[in-house]
């Protein structure tokens, strides 16, 4: 499971067509997507969330989006949002267990008391908290393609990446700027 990307993958379940068709979809409303998300993140086969679990997941996604927008604007984490995040983290119960680490040594691992959507929700919140703990909030970006709005982490040295994907959104925006200049020149 990729914990450092878990919250971003979850946040981007609010999909917008980056090509400009105006189409969008809340993928949390799509059972196949949600179950594949859980499976691909290493949580195994789960049942689709109950209505209250789905509402909780959407609420968490909105909370994370508000904070991601602040961080992308260079603002510090908002205290109220952090309190809400801590409430999510507090609802997950874990025990600790000593196990071999595969290298002849031992490690202490956290084991959830119960699996399911409450556990996944807490892991999503924890992955977001790790981003902040690691001082990476200044690397959070929102794709500048107004049709996309994908959240991503900018790992470039200069921290100037503007698009979630230079080959898709980057090329599309480059073509749009070129066509706008050409139209402007022809109208002059």
TrEMBL record:
Membrane spanning stretches: none
SUPFAM superfamilies noted in UniProt: Jann2411-like
Listed Pfam families: ABATE (PF07336), zf-CGNR (PF11706)
Name of the protein: CGNR zinc finger domain-containing protein
All copies of domain Zinc finger CGNR, residue ranges: 139-182
Xref: Gene3D superfamilies: Jann2411-like domain
């Amino acid at each position: 499971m990729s914990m450092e990307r878990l919250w971003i993958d979850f946040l981007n379940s609010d999909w917008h067509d980056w090509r400009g068709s105006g189409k969008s979809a809340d993928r949390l409303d799509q059972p196949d997507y949600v179950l594949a998300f859980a499976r691909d993140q290493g949580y195994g086969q789960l049942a689709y969330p109950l209505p209250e679990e789905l509402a909780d997941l959407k609420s968490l996604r909105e909370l994370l989006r508000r904070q991601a927008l602040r961080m992308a604007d260079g603002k510090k984490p908002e205290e109220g949002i952090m309190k809400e995040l801590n409430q999510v983290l507090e609802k997950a119960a874990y025990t600790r267990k000593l196990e071999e680490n595969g290298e002849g040594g031992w490690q202490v691992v956290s084991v959830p008391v119960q699996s399911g959507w409450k556990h996944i929700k807490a892991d999503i919140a924890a992955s977001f908290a790790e981003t902040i703990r690691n001082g990476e909030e200044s690397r959070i970006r929102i794709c500048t393609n107004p049709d996309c709005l994908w959240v991503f982490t900018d790992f470039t040295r200069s921290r100037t990446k503007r698009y979630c994907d230079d080959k898709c959104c980057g090329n599309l925006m480059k073509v749009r700027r070129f066509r706008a200049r050409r139209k402007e020149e022809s109208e002059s």
